[in-house]
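Supplementary Methods, section 5.1.

A reviewer requested that the exact input to the structure prediction be made available. We therefore reproduce it here, unchanged from the version used in the analyses.
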Amino acid sequence: MKSLKLPFIIALVAEIATALFLVWFYTRTGTSGLFKWNPQYGEQFHTAEFLLLVPPLFFGLAVLFYYISKRQQTVTIIFACLSILASFGCIGFSAWKLTVTAKAGHYVPKNHSVVKNMLPIQNAPVITHFAVSSDPHWNTTYCNPQSRTAIMEQVNSRKYDAFFILGDISDQGDIPNGYEVVVSDINKYLTETPVRLVMGNHELN
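The structure derived from this sequence is encoded token-by-token as follows.
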């Protein structure tokens, strides 16, 4: 069993480090607030708990190979290779996810729609009467499209100098062509009111 001492220590340290990270993460004020704000995030982040299974799995494989080969060198090499493969797997997955996200939405498609009545940045008119709203969250099932449309119609009917839409315009910023429906609705319901859109955290997804 002395041959399994090093793999056991590595697995134990990895397990403790992972557990401490998860405890730290879940006790942060921002984490609990995020989960209360949107329970769907909780379901996504809870998958991180599966990291606790990785060290025991690797150690179990090391024990299996030890009893098969009875050679310390073989056990050490196999355990090291598994760790390296897992690391490269995580790096590869992250790179793949980043590439998919970039291709999906973090670019301006050709012939994309544009807001026709955008408030200009330069030489903007004097603004004394304006409306502000936020978090319209187009492209999601938990918002109310009828209320969103009613708000735009109310703003448009009152002849404001400008309408500022603050953050989280689309529920996810990397949905392919996700802003086409946004621009279409704005052009349809805000024909008389200059619009200025402000990015939120969802635009950076």
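The chain has two domains: 2-105, 130-204. These observations are discussed further in the main text.
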